[in-house]
Prior knowledge:
Layout: H1 2-14, E1 18-22, H2 41-44, H3 47-50, H4 53-58, H5 60-75, H6 81-92, E2 95-100, H7 106-109, E3 115-117, E4 120-127, E5 133-135, E6 153-157, H8 166-178, E7 181-185, H9 197-203, E8 207-212, E9 224-227, H10 230-241
Parallel strand pairs: 1-2, 1-7, 2-3, 7-8, 8-9
Antiparallel strand pairs: 4-5, 4-6
Bound molecules: ligand BJW.
Ligand BJW binds at residues 23-25, 28-29, 34-37, 40, 51, 101, 103, 119, 157-163, 186-188, 190-193, 212-214, 216, 229-230.
Amino acid sequence: MNERIEEAAEIIRRTEYLVALTGAGISKESDVPTFRGENGLWRNYNPMVLATPQAFAENPKLVWEWYTWRQGLIGNCDPNPGHDVLSKWEKQGFLRTVITQNVDGLHRRANSENVLEVHGNLWAVKCTKCAYRSRLSEPADGIPICPKCESYLRPDVVWFGESLDQEIMRSVYLELDNADCIIVVGTSALIQPAASFPLIVKQHGGKIIEMNIEQTPLTQHADVHISGPSGVMLPKLDSALE
Ligand code: BJW
């Protein structure tokens, strides 16, 4: 394992433009449940019932109950040493951007500033009819209503079958074009388009470092795979860089 850490550290030392792609696994040690795998959210809830626009149209109350439950849960979670290392690397100037699929907001709470939340944020809401957008300061109580047009508000997250925000995607692709290394932490690399982001870096000659407790479809493309929990392995990698 120390060998893999040293290999990754050597790549990072030679990197000029490092970006990170994170998924639910980086927040696992903050007690935020992942989606898939042991005790994952999808084990107990059917995503097609809860994370699609059709589901919201059919049963907004049920969908909001699920999101309110998660807001309550995540409101009590704090960033872990994995989030802290990425924030420290940004302050040190060699990590440019965190591209995250997570909606939990923990990267910003760990003081990372350049964060691109490609699947939205659990606390953000938008109107289902008009252009109104806002943020909740506490878990929703029932179905929140738009103050402008009185339609239902919905969580401002990206559900299956929905496009990702175009402006955010433009920034993502700029970062991927500039990157000569991407460190991919805690994602099953199953959900598109995020699963393909590391391959864009690879296609123009950049390196992929993957950190995960298991192998993923990305592992075969990774230059280094560090196996283990990111709350432990990112601090180890950080120490190796010092
Ligand atoms: C640890 C750890 C520790 C644990 N340390 N590691 C092309 C081909 C085929 C299908 C498609 C395609 N393009 C689009 C699609 C359809 C679809 C898709 O990808 N489907 C797949 C099933 C194939 N994609 C979409 O619909 C996307 N929209 C889109 O592309 O629009 C255009 C379009 C539409 C339709 C057709 C074609 C084009 C939108 C995707 C939106 C995903 N939304 C969700 C919900 C967000 C809101 C919410 O949170 O409620 O986003 S789904 C869910 O999955 C969530 C996550 O961000 C996302 C990724 O999950 P993640 O982060 O990887 O978590 P897990 O749980 O899967 O994995 C955790 C990992 O951590 C594991 O590997 C563990 O081992 C590891 N781990 N502990 C390190 N301590």
